[in-house]
Amino acid sequence: MSNSPRLLLLVLTAVLLFSSMAPRVFAADDSNGGNLTATTNSTTSTASTNQTLDTLQQLSRGVNDTQYAQLLNQLDTQLHDGNNIGAQQTLTQLKAYTDSSQGTKLPASLRDLVQSLSVDSNGLTLDSSLLSQLIGTPGSNGMPMGLNGMDPVRAANDLQSLSSLTQNIDPKTSLSLAQDSNQLQDSILSGLFGGDQSSQSPQLPKPPSVQIGKLGAGGKGPFFPNVSATLPGGPGLSGGGGPPILPIIVVVIAGIAGLLFLNRKRLNLHGRRVTPNSFKAKLKLGKSELGLNLKSPRDLIIYYFRKAVAAMHKRGVPRLDYETHREFSVKCSPRPEAVPISDISVLFEKAMFSGREVTLPEADQAQQDALQVENSSVTTDKEHRQPSRSALARLFRAG
Known about the structure:
Elements: H1 4-21, H2 47-59, H3 66-80, H4 84-98, H5 108-115, E1 117-120, E2 123-126, H6 128-135, H7 152-165, H8 171-189, H9 197-200, H10 245-262, H11 264-273, H12 297-314, H13 325-331, H14 338-354, H15 360-374, H16 378-385, H17 389-398
Helix pairs in contact: 2-7, 3-4, 5-6, 7-8, 12-14, 12-15, 13-14, 14-15
């Protein structure tokens, strides 16, 4: 029995040691109600959340709005801290602000993106279908209805940013936004928004400065010897005391290449105008249904557009091989058929390039437009194309 107290003491000592080594457990805190789980590890931010925040920053360039900037910075901090509940509340405030009278001064593309966002346990979530609905379909000048009032160049760049954002979320919406951006850029280059076309086109980044003489310095990379030969009757190329001529030549060539790339469409059209076949009609008459399924509303619109073009060709207004449907519509603007030609061109653009659903009522509208073009007064057309005999007689007498 003398060993019992000693044994009991050993047992108590072991229990105390075990309790001191075990991790402490705290009770759960239910003060933050809701379905969102707040975390504090910044590495839990998803790639889609980071990309969405980056796109918000891109669309916010040039925005001078203190309240909006504060809300956006607060949202960014809360998301990266894992405070999803706070981020949800901030996003609600941001949506209310962009929908207010003050928020209407923000770019329409930015407001549409904010209204399409929500916050869940994984961070920011984008509703691509709502975004596409808010942006809307392009009008006759290529500008989406939801972006009316924006600078065309900025709108085209913002559409490209939104297309990149939705690429891994909804490829169909991403493709549609990219097509809208391309159509808008074509409208800018064709001068539908007025002003200097080349100055309105999205600018390429400037080529980086090239320092050829430094590439071989320090024993890193290949060695480029200095050129110090002087050509008879010409300037000398020197890598010593004079300015670096070769890098300047490289930069100039890169700049010329960039300018040619920016103006490639206008140069291409100019080249086509001087070809021997430039005045051949783009459409072969009598084959409007070639390659089309006339049971499809999309193909029906294309068919009726071809019929309208063929009718104008017979009246001496052909669609030339270098002309787009928009250029052809502009060419027909002084004529009596201008309105139906413009309407059917808009439907043709949607059927050919937008990727959106085409309905049977739209095909019926295209049919009405084509019939209106075909049934236009021949007398009016002849009077439009050539002066009357009495007018010619007056001209000869005046001469």
